[in-house]
Design a protein that fits this description.
This protein is mainly α. It is built from 9 helices and 3 strands; from the N terminus they run αβαααααβαβαα. It has one domain: Rossmann fold (3-Layer(aba) Sandwich). Helix content is 56%, strand content 4%. A 3-stranded parallel β-sheet has the order 1-2-3.
Length: 214
Amino acid sequence: GPAMTRAQAVQAIAAGIALVRAQKQSGAQLLATGEMGIGNTTTSSAVASVLLGRPVAEMTGRGAGLSDAGLNRKIDAIERGIARNHPDAADPLGVLAALGGFDIAGLCGVFLGGALERLPIVMDGFISGVAALCAVRLCPAAEKAVFASHVSSEPAAHIVLDALCKKPLITAELHLGEGTGAVASLPLWDMALAVYNGCYSFAEGGITPYTPQC
């Protein structure tokens, strides 16, 4: 049967939103997502395949290091899951309930909560990316809260980032999704803010201001 009911999916999303609210109240200015689990690149590939209308084989990678036979079994399992549940790409909540896990649904809520609470959420690897995709499909305005950190070496990670119109800050062939890429990108955000807030002008540096040459 399906991984969860629609009501359970809504509950998991609500838990993610509540978590962001609590973090905002405790003074957080930015949150980074990540997850740890076994088999969750499988659920993510299934959800991404349906939402993006792409073949399962294209959206499925080796996760933590599957053999060829293991990869084929994974693709087969996803194809059977999709065939059994016939999810509708136009119904992201239904896709999440039928093929996702509570981890993806909760993370989806974190991105929605970020948009609601005006708190930037730094997305990590493939699974975070699929959760962000679910959030944006449920509420397109949530896109403003999503910031990409790195691009995972999972084949579908690039496709998901493209669908979100996000560019990764770090391309380092990371096979990690537990928040490492998101945390590694934080100094880059700090540096960008330092330039934005504290950079001196040409005049202060004694440089002749640039005048466009027509």
